[in-house]
Prior knowledge:
Blueprint: H1 5-8, H2 31-39, E1 43-54, E2 57-68, E3 71-77, E4 83-89, E5 94-98, E6 101-105, H3 108-116, H4 122-128, E7 138-141, E8 147-151, E9 161-165, E10 168-171, E11 177-180, E12 183-188, E13 197-208
Amino acid sequence: MIRILFLCISTFIMLSACTTAPKGPQHTVNLTAQLQKVAEVNKWQVRGKIAFRQGKEAASLNLVWKNDSGNFEFRLANFLGVTMVDLNVTDNKSVLEADGETYIDAQPEPLIYNITGMIIPVESLLSWVKGLPLENDSYTLTEKGLVNTLESTCTLCRNWKVSYGNYGSVETAASDNVWLPHSITLTQEQTENTPKTQLKIKIYEWTLN
């Protein structure tokens, strides 16, 4: 049960961008070069919305996610701009603030699970949100050569499936450009202990540093 988030909003809102969604490349992309560029994107910020659904419960919130080589801040706010969840992760400490309380753990995964009831593979997600498969992930490609879906069988990933849409060209810190997804759906099928879980991320803006 996503205990804190579902106290915030009880109605599932399908995400829709307030700006025109990127349409992706017109020509086929060189996959090797694309994945290499994505792997080099280690300092970034995204702004958008995220929707959660687990069983019959759901919530939708605004998202600001800043990452600097694995140290990151993940902030969720309501439509009034009030912060509902703020997660800060460094090499040796994870701090989550929600509902007026502060929770601390060495790693973000057990912290997120204890507070929300969700098993989220945080380290993997830092790559997946960029459209970057990990070494043992299986994946399919779009007709233009970008990652379309991926699936991982790693122990902590718990069979999460990821699908992508609306790739857009984003300028890097080196004044180059890389294709990054603006629509991401993560799905974990129902298990003996947990109902089906889905996260939908709609990204309005990527900023690379």
